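Hi everyone, sorry if this is the wrong subforum. Our group has a chain we'd like a structural model of before ordering constructs, and none of us has done structure prediction before. Sequence below.
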Amino acid sequence: MLKIILRTIFSALRSHRVLALENLPLRHQLNVLQRNTKKPRFKNRDRLLWVVLARIWSDWRMPLTLVRHETVIRWHKKGFRYYWRWKSPPWRIGRPKVPKDVRELIRKMSQDNPLCGAPRIHGELLKLGINVSQATVSKYMVRDRKPPSQSWRTFLKNHAHDIVSIDFFTVPTATFRVLFVFLVFLKDRREVIHFNVTDSPSAFWIGQQIVQALPWDTTPRYLLRNRDRKYGEEFIHRIESMGMKEVLISAQSPWQNPYVGRIIGSIRQ
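Answer:
Right subforum, don't worry. Here is the predicted structure as tokens:
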């Protein structure tokens, strides 16, 4: 009895808006129970009502008795998915299609002006009032087919018997000095054919090592190396005088000289 009296006094002190919000879900649940079904089932309009109440009323969990509040949250998430599924139907996926006449115009302009790139053709289309992006122009341009060039790996494989690789690696000593180890690696046999150690490598010293490692009758066609500045003008002239052609790998690309790099890794381990 005391509990009922306290609830009545508390209800009298609350505002009319709060009482109306509390009565609405209670009356709604009574209507759901009065339906001629063995088990009360919520229809879509019932779920929508609870979703709206959960959005505008902070105490919406208090009068909820037929379902758990997690169920209402699940209804809300499901409605969110349905909304965006309706907003983005399958036939609206992706960018709008470029009209056929615009595509044909881009192809014709690229064929008639082979020296014009996508920026130039894009600018001419904008002058004509055709508003398309430069990426679209590049997509529909006609490009001349060129014979594919061989990859770097194919070059190494085809000319392995004519390639010799060189590289340096450092070794710290017990007296806190740094020694430079020079390697000459023959790709055909996967063999280190020459090595030497110095504490002050120079272009002249490196050229002398190449002469010792490669006699005149065994000089390969290509010499593969990185872009280190230790290989100066004297070294370059020595290589040219021996009839070899230097092949420089790209900057910061040690993977282009993999075999000698692998043997250096094995030596370090």
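For your construct planning: The beta strands are 163-172, 178-186, 191-198, 222-225, 245-248. Confidence is low (pLDDT under 50) at residues 1-6.
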